[in-house]
Amino acid sequence: MVELVASNVFSEKQIGYITLGVYLNGNYDLVTMFIEHFRKEIRNQENEPGQCLAIAAAANIGGREIAEALSGPILQALINPKNSDFVKKTACLALCRLYRETPSVIQLEPTFIEGLNQLLFSMNYGVQLSAASLILILLQRYSDKMALVLPTALMQLGKIFFDGTVSPDYLYGRNPAPWLILKYMRILQYKTNWDESETDRITRILDNCLQKTDVSLAAKEVHSNLILLFEAINFIIARQFSNQLMQRSASILGGFLNAKLSNVRYLALESLTRLVQANPSIIPSLDQHRQTLYLALRDPDNSIRRRTLSLLFAVCTKESAEEIVHELLNYLRFADITMREPLCLKIAVMAEQFAEDPAWFVDVVLQLITMAGDECSDGVWHRVIQVVSNVQSLQRYATMTSFGSMCANNPHDRLIALTAQLVGEYIQITDIRPEEVIQELIAKYKIASDISKGIIITALAKIGAKYPPGKQTVLEFIQTLTSSTNIDIQQRAIEYITILNAPPQVMQAVFKPIPPFENKKSSLLRKVMLEQAEEGLEEEDEEDKNEEDPSKFVTQLPTKAAPAAPAAAPAPEPKNNADAMDLLGLGSPAPAPAQPKPVAKPTDFGLGAPATPQNAVTDLLSAAPVTNVPAPLNDKEAIKKHFLANDQGLCFEDANIAVNLSIQVNHPNAILSFNIQNKTGGILTNVGVHIPPVPFLAVQSKPGATQINRGEMTVFQFALRVRQPFIDPPSYTLRYTWSEQSHNEVLDLPFNIFKFTAPFNMDYNNFFARWGQLTSPAQQATASFNPVGDPTNQMKQVMTSVFKVPVLPLQVPPGNVCGAGIINAEGGVLGILCRFFIENGKCNVQIKG
């Protein structure tokens, strides 16, 4: 390979570079010997083919060492005006690949930004497309610094549409350069401020795209038109540009619901769902399509059925809830197994949220349990118990109705559990004879599961305590269970016999009624939001992934897999310790573990400047003990510090509104709730919170009210799931209108990757065996600081409250604290090992992964 790469014959050099790209990756020590040769080739402007081959090979091999050594020469090749268009295209795509692996390789100097901006003026559309791909990646992290390119993107987009300067070679389906238009549209989603002329220009462009609705043309023209149409709609949704354009988009998408092409129907359903979530005011205009949606539930394509269900859930209101729930219950009778559980969840949430009479919610849940059985999750009947405990007028009806359903033939186990729980609590307010209830529960005990048996025993004990004539029957039955092989049943039976034979005041003290549950956000709603976020991940089209990842244009490499790699294979749940141990490489020591993707330093996670790790960690320690204290008014650093160790608090406030953020983590997902309060004496309009799409997080939104009356508040919620590790969190846009004046704030979300860390238990041998294997600089980060007060206590606070890693009970010397955690990303489980220790009078923190 060395001789081939150094050859002066192009065919031999080409084979040599291709071989390098196929057989090597950044984990091989052999890469070091080629770096200097790559650098010379990249700087040699006299040999353009060799220059391009070296740039492409560097991107294909990848790795931190390649990125740090060669990103500078590749950047110079990109902005050097003497280089050809082909070299610039290759350099752009190579930087896309290297940046995704090692974001620190690109430093956004003004000269580099200006050079990128100039590339958008190139007459070569291939150069424009490559530059737009790189710009789109950089905007996701540096939207403020890259503001220079946004007017250029708009200008070039206008030229493509209206100047007629595009060569016929770039026409596809009668549309000029549709893929370049797509890139410019996505770039302009990051533009927040629009003057009147810019608004007119983009409105004309969007109007042009929204006219491309004819799906009866040739396949090439249809595909080209749909690229522009749906990207325009995506832009309108992301920027919520105008209500008129949103209404028009809804009308177009509604017409596509009857399209013959299943792909078009799928895109229409998915886009309509996001459109409704962004602007609920368009829901009335979709009422005419409800019958079409009911028919779409019977579509042979499972993905269309799921998207239809999501759209029906999004468009449901108080006025339409009864009709939609009725149709979904009818569909549930013959729905396939994959649809039944999400159907039950969404039906239950709609029945609870939009029920004018709480009794209707109970009736719906009983139908769900009867029809769906095992596919109706326990959370549904748990929610009934919570609602009934809080609504006194509902307790009698719910108890009698559920008991009547249970007495029917072959009741499902969940119905038995629900009924037993209700009659045990509220039998005294019903007309049911206690003897009848006792006999029914004893009869159903034989067919109940172990969990339901425990609930039945408790219910019988409570009935026996409330109804003395039936006490003896209950005692005789429970006595037969004292020799049960199930330890839980046996223990319950013995304890309840003792309690039932105790004085009345003891029974009253033990069998107190369950108190009302806290009126918190429904756990069913939270589960639906998380499932929708996961659904978006699972059904993401591979072509869309390639569009979001321009580095896919550079040939992908086979990675060298080692058995001890921390994330060698995905694991579905963190609770599976056996799988996670394998993923962390703890099964057995490996002689030569492969290096994983580079791990960012702790100071890169918003804890301070990378150049001063000691100050960063000291700041971190000072932030760790803070609890339940609101951050100072709009002090970004103070807000960031506050949310390092806290999951709720004030994140923005001005004279008109106050925004409180709450973060709820349910590994590997998180829900962000923005609670917006109106502080003015009037009405706030056009209220909204928007998180733009980013490659490292999947985001599913549930918008709140766009209008807030005086003294009231609204809540905007977002379900997040980690796709890949990240350093800087995304930004979000907060907007509202007061006194005919629009307010827009672009802020950073105050959380980091450690919010998604799940605890992981390890013993001494496994911890230090794995610790000893992680020796590469790319797998670890360290920092030191001067101790303040009790350093051991501070170290424990930082580990548990900031890194979200529990302190492991290991037998380690004094002044040492160890912890382990895992992050479930889309690509697999990422292992984290933490160690705090005191050495030479200083506190040290070391993270490996």
UniProtKB/TrEMBL annotation:
Residues 558-611 are annotated as: Disordered. It is a peripheral membrane protein. Its main location: membrane. Residues 561-570 have a biased composition (Low complexity). The keyword Membrane applies. Pfam families: Adaptin_N. GO terms for biological process: clathrin-dependent endocytosis; intracellular protein transport. SUPFAM superfamilies: ARM repeat, Clathrin adaptor appendage domain, Subdomain of clathrin and coatomer appendage domain. It comes from the Eukaryota. Keywords: Membrane, Protein transport, Transport. InterPro entries: Adaptor_Complx_Large_Subunit, AP2_complex_asu, ARM-like, ARM-type_fold, Clathrin/coatomer_adapt-like_N, Clathrin_app_Ig-like_sf, Coatomer/calthrin_app_sub_C, TBP_dom_sf. It is found in: Endomembrane system. One of its GO terms (molecular function) is clathrin adaptor activity. This is Adaptin N terminal region family protein. It comes from Trichomonas vaginalis (strain ATCC PRA-98 / G3). The lineage of its organism: Eukaryota, Metamonada, Parabasalia, Trichomonadida, Trichomonadidae.
